[in-house]
Amino acid sequence: MEKILDTAKSWLTDFFDPAVKEEIQHLIDNDTEELKDRFYKNMEFGTGGMRGVMGVGTNRINKYTLGKSTQGLSNYLKKAYSNEEIKVVIAYDCRHNSDTLARTVAEVFSANGISVYLFSELRTTPELSFAVRHLNCHAGIVLTASHNPPEYNGYKVYWTDGGQIVPPQDGEIIAEINSLSFEDINFKASDSLIKVIDKEVDEAFFEASVKNGSVNAKGKNDFKIVFTSLHGTSITAIPEVLKRAGYENVTIIEEQAKPDGSFPTVKSPNPEEPEALSMAIKKAEEIGADMVVGTDPDSDRLGIAVRNLDGRMQIVNGNQAMVMMTKFLLENRKKEGFRGNEFTATTIVSTPMVKAMADAYGVEYKTSLTGFKWIGKMIKDFPESEFLGGGEESFGYMVGDFVRDKDAVTSTLLACEIAAQAKANGSSFYKDLIDCYVDYGFYKEHLISITKKGMSGAEEIKQMLKDFKENPVDSVAGSKVKWIEDYNTSISKNVITGEEKTIDIPKSNVLIYETEDGTRIAARPSGTEPKVKFYISTNTELDKAANFKEVSAQLDAKIQSIISELNLG
């Protein structure tokens, strides 16, 4: 506690604002537990940036923690591009303080002689990724905490290719930041280096989104969409992109259209949570809409609901949406003619069904750690190859490579194209998904997410993963465990034969069991939240669409038995 107190008192110097000092003194005098939580560690600049609760302290998002990161990034950019005029672009989302924090970040860059393009108002994360290359910038920043609760904010860093920072830049930038003290931050802005941007970049982004997401699908006039931005940034882009692509029957949920960092109409602004889309689904049932689309606050994730076999709106999960988008892109390229250099990609905890499809089309399939920065890195590492599209189970997808992060704007358009074309053909999005299960195997996934907050929570998560690794199971749902993939050691071991393979992916705290029947159980801590996640993937054959409900129920029962068997319930 003494060390924590010393750290807190270091924020009582004249370098810090009077209001900051007053709040810290109040905590020192009156609230030891809160003081401890705010100062027991530094807000870490991780491999993609920072995300955390806003407030005063070293373990909070504020002008000083963001300022220090920006100062370190400025120093790194000046070393890496010593003979160039350095340019960065900054965007921000709907969260409380995002606009003022974005301005602070811009001022620190400018104080270091770096030219800044700053969006005039909130914009989507995919537009920021696009803007980095469109404006020939060396880096980009977006102030966002994605789908986290209202008290959170964050800071994501993009590199010259428009993708998030990856090795070796991430480690080098972290080292630069960690070498600084707060007093090293230069807050003396050079306003002449800050240029406000908006419509010109918007126009270019909208045009690129329509070009990449539209395939001139039939049936648009007869296709009804309900859209909700869940109080986030996508209201600035998705309605316009849909309109330009020819969709006129779009109903916007007005109660959720106004950007608001408190997210007053939802428990969580996360389209992975069914409750987030409830208002839009209710409207869709009222007006007989064909599809619901909802996006998270920075518009990189999208949730989709479509009509199921019983004619009711049903949410499709991230794996299902990814399967349909990838299938559509593969099929369209097949019609155009494969060039032999295409690839699609997903992550190690996403559905194996994408690989089954890619193999069937003879297209290369690549896999990465969780996080779109790794998919973006693939595009950079293999310039001779063409990225068709790819995604991850957590409701993110990227179409082509004009954006180098998950992109709910273009993915929304693509999903609408798929569904409109299916309806025009006398089918539906949902029926076409079932046909995919017949063709490539019926894969069904389930996610268990366990939240553990605070210092003790971090230790609990660490222990759970340790137990999962040190006490391996022999079988899962009656099928023998065949492979154990340990991404910490980069070893994949066949526990039946003893064969070992090297995993050619960067090390990460992930462990995956795979059984003889293809069932997969993956465990990993969340990189952005105090959670540990368990991913379950099962599969079987579906001989014909008519048996879908029966086989689906069988897989559901298998998943529930696995949850019970592994004590994850």
UniProtKB/TrEMBL annotation:
Annotated ranges, domain Alpha-D-phosphohexomutase alpha/beta/alpha: 43-182, 210-305, 317-436
EC number, UniProt record: 5.4.2.-
Keywords, alphabetical: Isomerase, Magnesium, Metal-binding, Phosphoprotein
Claim: Phosphoprotein is one of the keywords in the record: yes
GO molecular function: isomerase activity
Cofactor: Mg(2+)
Signal peptide: none
Magnesium among keywords: yes
The protein's name: Phospho-sugar mutase
Pfam families (alphabetical): PGM_PMM_I (PF02878), PGM_PMM_II (PF02879), PGM_PMM_III (PF02880)
Family of this protein: Belongs to the phosphohexose mutase family.
InterPro entries: A-D-PHexomutase_a/b/a-I (IPR005844), A-D-PHexomutase_a/b/a-I/II/III (IPR016055), A-D-PHexomutase_a/b/a-II (IPR005845), A-D-PHexomutase_a/b/a-III (IPR005846), A-D-PHexomutase_C_sf (IPR036900), A-D-PHexomutase_CS (IPR016066), Alpha-D-phosphohexomutase_SF (IPR005841)
Gene3D superfamilies: Alpha-D-Glucose-1,6-Bisphosphate, subunit A, domain 3, Alpha-D-phosphohexomutase, C-terminal domain
